[in-house]
Every structure is written in structure tokens, then in C-alpha cells.
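Internal ticket - ligand job 514, xanthosine-5'-monophosphate:
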Amino acid sequence: MKEHKIIIIDFGSQYTQLIARRVREVGVYSLVVPSSKNAQEIKAMNPSGIILSGGPESVTVSKSQKISKELIDSRIPILGICYGMQTLSKELGGRVASADIHEFGHAEISFGNPSPIFKNIKLKNNLFDVWMSHGDQVEKLPNNFEVIASSKDCQIAGFQSKDKSIFGLQFHPEVTHTEQGTKILSNFVFDICGCKKNWSTKDIINSMIDDVKMQVKNEKVLLGLSGGVDSSVVAMLLHKAIGSNLVCIFVDHGLLRLGEVDEVMTTFQEIGIDIRLSKASNIFTSRLKGVLDPEKKRKIIGNTFIDIFEKEAKKIKNINWLAQGTIYPDVIESSSDGHNSSVIKSHHNVGGLPERMNLKLLEPIRKLFKDEVRKIGKELKTPEHIISRHPFPGPGLGIRIMGEVLNDRIKTLQKADKIFIDELHKNNLYDSLSQAFVVYLPIKSVGVVGDERRYEDVLALRAVETVDFMTAKWAHLPYDFIGRVSNRIVNEIPTVSRVVYDCTGKPPATIEWE
Ligand code: XMP
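stdout (C-alpha cells):
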């Protein structure tokens, strides 16, 4: 299955990962590499085809990123999208200039010379709808190229070489607004690059299991299982691949949701996975005593987690590997930040533990996007309540309690959070949200219950919708629903006198409050 792959060269477009996902969705493995990788390195990866992403730069500026002539001459099929088309054009002797009219958004395309990349694209009134986003455009074709698509404001909206498999599109086939964009990508991948399908859920699982078996052989693997989607899917996969040679540790830091410890333990025990619970809430709360600063809290929780995990791991004999639920967006080498560096989120790289403990690192899902992890999880029969779970931050309720993390505050928050989440499930709203939770505010507010005056806690409800968690909209939950949750919280938890709803997007706010 590794034979056919499409390489996406990243020139910094916000859509680069989307191109990779679309190629995988049509059934072929794809990976993203930074534009700084040289031609030999890329050729050594033996791609069936190359897609050049869009990007924010202008090829008219001398230091802008470019496609190397060596790759263009390599006879590997190439598709340049937006900036990718412009750099192709420039390197091949065409001319790119800033357009009089910048096209952003919807545009209509008509065909020029026939092209295999538009095979079976259906036209309405001789046009089809695409999504444009560009200031520059190709004004003069490279030698031996011809126009295959035009829009009202962009004469050369698509070109192709007359004798090589090189194509350029000024519009974005990867975004859903380009109707039939997936068809265009699949024409490139199958008809032009000659790829065979190799990226179905079953293919991926089989290949990952083979890889794990080959790497690990008969050795034992340790996994820190949090009950989140990524580590749970890794557990299911490793259980299938190596059975009883997988040992999981679940650290209860006391900052989890109500009932979560029992739920996670029972779920994985029933599957037959060797999961060991480390009850460590006391040490976490004692180390968090008097700490108010959010970043300090994060550090303390992270470091304490590592201490506990290491201590527990030492109790298990003959472990050689440490598995982690790192996924593709965490490891992708990206040029969009201008550094071409590998970005690994620190919370995934459990504090340099593999080196410290002298363990080999196993990252079986590091090639997968989040939606692929979920699909694979389903195929591996990971329980639905785990797969469809909202993400939960490593520091847990520690960063949802503003100010000092105290035991009575944890208890109040756990109870309120359970009411909110239960009501979301009951009203079929949970799956429409990306994340929902309650936040504890360290202030008191006056209330009246019956004839009695209360001076108690204030809680905030937070619910957001997002695709990538980089930006998010606050969810417009029905007023009646919010009212019901608020009533239940104030009535059922005597230490709460008031509930508020957070109506701030990201930006300007973040999703978590700390
Ligand atoms: P923010 O608050 O930055 O959150 O908008 C974006 C996403 O990241 C999660 N998050 C964390 N996850 N450790 C984690 O494992 C952390 O320290 C952390 N802080 C935020 C947050 O829940 C949301 O899904």
C-alpha cells in the first residue's frame, strides 16, 4: 500500500492539509512536505505525483519560495494550485503579475483546450463553479503550454503542458465550494499519476498493524491511556496487533470529569486490555496548593503527570517501548509559519519520557488526521462514547477552575459539568458541538432560594463549534435549553448561586478560560 503516494509541497497555504485530506479521501496516501525539501529528497520518496499548494507569497518577489527545475524535469506528474501554478509558470519562463482585479470567492470557469484533468466534469451553461483566492495571476504561458480554463477576470485560470504531465489551476479544487473539485483531484491522482487505491480504513489498519508487529516483535509496549480519542484508538490498535504485550497506565490526577475514572477503566477492562489505574489526586492537589497562575498550573500538572507515570512504569517489568497517540497535524512539517520546522505540540511529547526511561518511541497513528483516527477507531470497534467524545485538555479541570484548584471547587465543577453534558446528550445537542464544558469562577454572588439569601459560587457554561480548534464560534444553544441547565445546576448544587453563558468567539477569546 505504500507504493502509491502523492506528495503535497507546502508553500504555506491555509488549505495545504486540506489537499492532503482530499487526496486520502479519494483513496490514495498523501503526505505534506515543506517547500525547503530539495528535489533529490522528494524524488527519493518515490511519489506517484506532486501537488504544489497555494501560499501567501508573490512569485514576483525575488526571495519567494519556488519549485525546483530539477523536480519539474523529473517527469513526475505535477499539479500546481494557485501559488503552485504561479511558481511553475515563473520557473518555466511564463510571466506572473499582480492582477487588476483580485478574485476572492466564487467564480465561474469555462474550458479551453481539452484536458484529462477535467475528465467527466459537468458544465452548466458551459460553466462550472470554483473558489478563487488570488491577487497575482499567470499573464503569459510558459513555452509549450496551453490554456485549459478561464474565468471572466482570469484568462489563464488553468494550463497544461503540451507534452508533459504538468498542470496548473488558479482556483482551489480542494475546498468544498469548488463543486466537482474532488473529481478534478481524483482525475489527477488516478488518470494522470496512475495511482491505485490504497487508503481505505481497512488498508490503513492492516498496514499499521504490520508496521507495529515489525517494529515491536515480541517486546512489551507501555501506553499512557487518557480515555481521549487518540490514545484510546492507539490502545485498540495495539491490542489487536500485539495483544497482551500492551500494558496501559491510566493516571487519575483528580481533575477528571465525574465518573470518568470508572468509565474508562470499565470500558477497557471489558475489551480485555491490560489497564492499570494510578490514583494520584492527592499529590496533584497538594502540589497545586496556592498556585493561581494558569501556565504554572499547566507546568505542575504536566511535570507531576510525568513523575507519576515514570514511577508506575518502573513497576512493570521488561518494557521496551512507549506508545504515544501523536497524530499527523502534530508532526507535519509546515512552512506556513515561515520556519519550515517540525512542530510537535509539547503536550503530546510526554516530557522527553522515552529518552529518560530509555524506551523506544512507538507512534502508530502519526500519519493520520483526526477524522481518520475516528474512522479507524470505529472500524476497530472502539466504543462510540469514546470516539464521539469532545476533546478534554491534559491539565483537565485544573485549567477550568479559575484561581486556586481546591477540592470543593473540583467537586462543584464536576457536578455542574455532568449536568450540562447529560442535558446536551438528552437533547441531542452534544454531537453538534465541538466542545462544551463548565468553568468555575472564583467569585461569590448573591442569590435567593425560597426565603433564604445565598452568597455562593458563579459558574460559566462554554460551548463552541469549530473545525480545527484554531478559531471557534460560540454555540447558539437554544435559550430554553440554557435556562434548563442553569436551573438544574442552581437547584441541585447548593454551593452555586448563579450561572452565566460565555458568548465569546475565538478569537478574541480562547476556548478554555485559562
Ligand atoms: P484554546 O483554549 O487554546 O484551546 O483555544 C484549543 C484546544 O486545545 C485544548 N487545550 C489543551 N489541551 N493541554 C491539552 O492537552 C493544554 O494545556 C490545553 N490547553 C487547551 C482545548 O481544550 C481546546 O480543545
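Auto-summary: The first strand starts at residue 5 and ends at 10. The mean pLDDT is 93.
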